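User: I'm new to structure prediction. If I give you an amino acid sequence, what do you actually give back? Let's try with this one:
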Amino acid sequence: MTSTAGGVTTPAMRTDLFDFDLPEENIALRPVRPRDAARLLCVSRFGDIRDRIVRDLPGLFEAGDILVLNDSRVIPVALDGVRAARPNGEDVRVKVNLIERLGSDHWRGFARPGRRLRIGDEIVMSSADATCQLRAVVLEKVEDGTLSFRFDQSGDELNAAVQALGMAPLPPYIAERRPYDERDAEDYQTIYAAEDGSVAAPTA
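Assistant: Good question. You get back a string of structure tokens that encode the predicted 3D arrangement of the chain. For your 204 residues, that looks like this:
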């Protein structure tokens, strides 16, 4: 397979070359504590590679180095809901991950199982004690696998409902192996978090 750009034909990237075996026991389902005990791969400008830990970081800096901090706060945009049963069917539990706000009451996101959702379907998200509830209608299904949702609340009310009902958006390799718990809200938030904005948890 090849691709052509600017009249030059180049081989297409083979994504299978990135495949590798990862033993189940090597998949970290929790970050290390304390945070500064996390492993750190240090690559010098000369190409030297060393295994260090995060608490070594201050001693690795040199004059003129630039430190970039991620101060974006992760929004709890992973939501559990239910799509009501169709005739002769059953309710369907739906997991929604919001990824982009399109308007005051309008978000784009992923849903599982997305194939069982149709335009016009309503998903109801409720707290365990039913004191908080949010409804979302599927407006569009896009070719890239995302869907757009219109919520029954908007603006600050929608923000508050998402904050109350949502969870940290854990990566699939963690979420598929253990249930979400209260520790995740802290573990998957940087210590520099200041302004809401991120829809994916910092995992590296």
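You can read the tokens as a compact description of the fold. Here is one thing that stands out. The CA atoms of residues 141 and 147 lie 5 Å apart.
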